[in-house]
Amino acid sequence: xxxxxxxxxxxxxxxxxxxxxxxxxxxxxxxxxxxxxxxxxxxxxxxxxxxxxxxxxxxxxxxxxxxxxxxxxxxxxxxxxxxxxxxxxxxxxxxxxxxxxxxxxxxxxxxxxxxxxxxxxxxxxxxxxxxxxxxxxxxxxxxxxxxxxxxxxxx
Length: 155
Hints:
Strand content: under 5%
Structural class: mainly alpha
Shape: elongated
Order of helices and strands: HHHHH
Number of helices: 5
Helix content: 55-70%
Low-confidence stretches: none
Radius of gyration: 22 Å
Distance between the termini: 65 Å
Mean pLDDT: 92
């Protein structure tokens, strides 16, 4: 039998087998409880991080329409999909979303300002969006400015 400290992957597999077989005495209750809590915390970190990334890119989208890029569109869309899937599988996390939009806003402004070479004061002082708006503000590759490619010199 493996210990939690020596091989967490093997320990996890053994604990799952013991749970399914209802071998209660074989269970490492303390570490099982920690792992379950860690799973919840991991889901929360993912949700918070993805909301932060969307808000940061929406800020850049708003203040620099002439610099919009396909990668901004992709980041916003990809993270929206991750959040939608996460909330579909874990609907109890929905109650955290409004708070995360508001609490991550200031840090999103700081990073957006840094990435755009603008001042923090160039952005709204308060978050202008609800979670539902963060998830639905239209972003499209059609709104991306096309810049002509430079001709490559023949060598």
